[in-house]
Amino acid sequence: MPKGQYLGELELYVMSALALLGDEAYGVTIRRTIAERSGRDVAIGAVYATLGRLEEKGYVSFRASDPLPMQGGRSRKYARLTPEGRRALRHSTAMLAKIIPALSSGSGGRR
Amino acid sequence: MTPRLPRWIVSTLAPQSERRYILNDLHEDFVVIAQKNGLRAARRWYWRQTLASAGPLARLRFQAAIRTLRRFDLSPSGAAADAWQGARWLARHPTLSTTVVVTLTVAFAAALAGFCVIDSVLLRPLPFPDPDRIVLIEATSPQRPAGARSVSLQDVEDWQRLTRTFDAVSACTEDTFRLTGRGEPREIDALRVAPDFQRVLAIQPAAGRAFGPLDFTTAGARAVILTHGFWQREFGGDPSAIGRALLLNEESYRIVGVLPRLDVTFPEPHDIWVPLVVRAGAFWEASRGTGWVFALGRVKDSTTVDVAQGELTSVMRQLAIEYPRTNKDRTLAELTPVVEELLSPITPVLFLLALALSAVLIVALGNLATLLLATVARRRPEFAVRMALGAGAGRIARQIGAECVFLSSTAAAVGLLATPLLVTAFMAVYPAPLPRRVDGSMSLPLLGTALLLTFTAVVLLWLPQALAARTAHRGMSVASTRTTTPLEHATRFSLIAAQVALSLMVVVAAASLVRTMQRLNAIDPGFDAEGVLAFMVTPSPQRFTTAASAHAFYNSALEAVRSVPGVQTAAAGVGVPLMSGGWRFGIRPPGAPRDTLVSVNLVSPGYFETLGIKLLAGRQLTEAEQRSGAAVALVNGSLARILARDAQSVVGTRMNYSGQAWEIVGVADDVRHAGPRRPAAPEFFIPWHMAGKRPQTIVVRASGDSMRVLPAVAARIHEIDPTAPLSRVSRMRDRMRESVAADRFRAMLVGVLALVALILASIGAYSVTAVSVARRTREFGIRMALGEERAGIWRRAVWTALSPACAGVVAGAVGASAAARLLESFVFEVSPRDPLTLAAVALGLLALATTAAAISARRAAHVDPLIALRTE
User: Fold this and answer.
1) Contact across the interface for A77 and B57, Cβ inside 8 Å
2) Which of these, B336, B203, B339, B344, lies nearest to B273 by C-alpha position?
3) Shortest Cα distance, chain A CAs vs residue B60, angstroms
4) Beta strands in B282-405 (DSSP E)
């Protein structure tokens, strides 16, 4: 994996949320998932900025929905992981899984 | 409801493609939070989200902009399709296309013709090798009167001997010869040239030979060289003309050569070259004291004009020591490159032409850009459909680009074809001969200029449209044509403001020039030109050999002319306004640092009556005094003011001239000899008979059209001398008109351009209002529904054109004051910075813009609110 393609923290969060949400991922649900799982209240602008970056890397694709057929229904921009995105997420989580046990045992003792 | 301000912040910051979704997502959460925790908490949440999103959104927007730029597709794929689309659109809008092409063609043709004139006259090198090294040599001194700078032939011969920095030094003087034996006797213009003249210019004869040393000895046969133009006119370019004889002043000259075609007023408008040798009997030619030749030199390649000037000055000082009596006022050499001497009078005129043309060109382009920008609004549905079908902003921009290229290149092609015609028309109305022939034919620089113009036009017309069309799909509504982006607004504002500013500058220039014309027409030249016929006549030097016989010729010619029916009075003179002049000498006014030149004039009895010149004091010379050798003289008002307090007190005093003390018996009114622009010079009238063999002008006052008496007058004169040609025959009134022809031409040229600029600017104000009214119909409808008066609506509509016009007037006023310096050499008793003119033009332009806008804003005031809202 080239150097520039390491995933940032927020990117990792957003991609994880996308993996969890499947076809139901759009701004609101992504934000909610991240908030529920990590306790972080991410700004909507940050979510979109991250999605934009991920799209450029080719990890995410979009489709715009028609307005929902109900009162006040609005159009949404749904996001999903591309196969490449899935691979990148797997790779990153695998790397983290290797590193994190070592970190927690090494630094935990000194604390 | 979501809070307004943060919503606005988000929509401003978010990239346009994401804006809607972000706002929708925020709204969704907002509703949930509001239901759960209340509206206040939801609002606080919304604010927090907005502030936290600001940074990431701004970054996102920046990235999106970069991506758009990358997507800007200028690759050839699909280019043909875009061009086809553009061509089809133009074909479907013939009125618009024709308007644009015609306007552009006129602007281009005018600009290209202007370029031809400027290129031919100023930019191309003179037709001599190394023209920069050819210099006019003049001699001055701190005391020598301004205007007296010429030198004697002896001076030039000494310079040839004593200088080292010149390849060649030579001299020439102008003269006229009477050509006989080839049809009607005529006067032809000759340049008498000293040895080496051809080496100074470094030109080779086109046929035959140059003058050799033998031609300058009195022993050699008289030789003549023809200029190319005269050779063509007189001999049809026949090579066998060389060797033939030409009868000049009834002496036979042999044609030895023909000059190449030069197309420059120096030395071309002369018909022939003859060797410059001192003529027997011409005492001033033999004298070292008279300044009667123009000296020219070719500075050596190895040195500079400044060094040559230094060397020549030291040579002149040496000669002044050697010949103190004649040369004490010739101690300072002044070298002027001939290029400057030839072109400096015309340069400001051409500069003015170029500026006025550029201003009109920019106004025209600005106008068309506004017009085409307005079409983008109407074409939004078309663009939105194309974009919805997958065309990027780049493809739309390319389609518009194709349209602009098509319009501009058509106009440039037609403009190029029209250029030679326009150049011919320009030369036909241009009053004075230009120093060089203007070439209107196709050339590489002309083609390059046409390309440059096309490119400029394409960019100027394309850019505002492309920028406006980039957002054509905004709102994704195919039917919506009612939004104006700030960029579009700013573009339109600056286009109108620029048009108004440049129009103002051109109109101020035109106003100054027209007022100059009025001032010149109001000037009293000191004589009455109406009903006066004037012509020069010289008796045959063979038959009238002595001064006395020449005087007798003019005397009997006047007698004969006065007997012609219809002639009221007739007179002759050496110096007649706008016709001919005598010689000048310097006098030192009391307290002045240098001399003032006084013109010597010799006029026959009846001269003042014929020209209607008033006598200010004293009396005229009597008939007896005119014939006798008495030292009595008249002065004009200017000279009287130098010699004494006023005209009255100068009568009876004496003035020294040519070694005699002349008694002043009368004072004549000042006459502007060179037309109304030049103030009268001091003039000194001595008895007429002293004119001797000098050529004189005869003036005839006749009843009715003065030209009608000409055949009878000519017949009477030819009874006395059948070979005497009448030259420069003209009505005095026409010569007056000619003397201000350059002013009239400038006023007319800039006036026409100003008119064009005004028309274009008002069309601009009209169309910008019309577009704005069409776009704001709905807004106006709502305003009216909410109770705004029709007058208020109307004012709003007018203001859209008036606000940029106001900005333009301010900018134009600043520009006009800055450019006023350029006009200073053209105006006469008028200030180009005159605040009154500026204010009047500014107000006039504003009134015009208001009127144009008001006409087109009427539609806004007649909007029916019901209909306006129903269109939604």
Assistant:
1) no
2) B203
3) 5
4) 294-299, 332-337
